[in-house]
Amino acid sequence: MEYRHTPVLPAEVTQHLSLHPGSIIVDCTLGGAGHAKRIAESIQPDGILVGIDQDDAALTAAADTLRLGRQAILVKGNFGDLDRLLTEAGIAYADGFLFDLGVSSPQLDVPERGFSYHEDAPLDMRMDPAGGGPSAADVVATYSEAELSRVIREYGEERWASRIAAFIVAARGRRPILTTTDLVEVIKAAIPAAARRSGPHPARRTFQALRMEVNQELEVLERGLRAAVGWLAPGGRIVVISYHSLEDRTVKRVFSELATGCTCPPELPVCSCGSEPVVRIVTRRPVVPTEREIEENPRARSAKLRVAERR
User: Fold this and answer.
1) 3-state secondary structure of 209
2) E strands along 19-141, which residues?
3) Between β-strands 48-53 and 24-27, what pairing exists: parallel, antiparallel or unpaired?
4) pTM of this structure
């Protein structure tokens, strides 16, 4: 299957990165290079694009799309390891970072990846299946009922989390839950029929929660954001597009902490921590897609873009 990627908020990303010829830009979520292609065109002739992805299919597709030779450095890895990856890439600093979070369209569209509740496939959900680590099937098979309930409630914001967790534990006692269809059937059985008649697919929130747990997405996001700030040149910017309220809250919190500086109790007359603000928040409110973009690309519906600038 062709690794397609329709970028979300492309004009806004280009605008807020303040791109110019000679910029060094790091795309931490390369995907099919939808954003990267626009960025690369804006920083020519002597700019450098560093593209990071942990998906081999994405890197292969991006290399074919970009065709920039030495001006594009493609690196396999997780942006949670940003310090190591950029050191290996051989750059000294960056003028901008882009984080386009969530699961890309091709990952959702390829059934074997196990992200979709619409297709029967192995219950995997790892962004990098070759990299090892537990799959969604491992989580479902080994987590206690309390742990499953916490994950589904916290990451999926699912009101039926406790009931779904109980049904999973009961079902796995009868036979292993190994495929997406196996899990969907358990979730449907757990959620009362009246609650299934409206709203999104009954498995949507649980699948989202398991994906976030398997890939440790919130922890990796915070680590990547804080590392990116250390690589930014003064005036450089971090642009983040999130698709989930927990992701957006994490971005907002990290940006706020980095923009605040002093962490001393308010009652202290003089600062004793010595911390100073390292970024300026550019977008006090998140930028969201227009109705027209949502019509053309429904997966943009929940997107929120936030920007911070290095002081």
Assistant:
1) helix
2) 24-27, 48-53, 72-76, 94-100
3) parallel
4) 0.90
Mean pLDDT for the chain overall: 93
Q: Are 183 and 204 in contact (CB under 8 A)?
A: no
Rounded Cα–Cα distance for residues 300 and 173 (Å) = 39
Question: ∠ at Cα 82 (91, 115), nearest 5°?
Answer: 130
Tokens of 282: 């550019």
Burial of 255 (0-12, 13-18, 19+ CB in 10 A): buried
CATH code for 128-214?
Answer: 1.10.150.170
Secondary structure (3-state) at 67: coil
CATH annotation of 10-106+217-310: 3.40.50.150
Q: State the pLDDT at residue 273.
A: 85
Alpha-carbon distance 110 to 116, whole Å? 8
Give tens-digit pLDDT for 179-224.
999 999 999 999 999 999 988 999 999 999 999 999 999 999 999 9
Look up residue 32 and give its two tokens.
């099919």
Break the chain into its structural domains and give their ranges. Answer: 10-106+217-310, 128-214
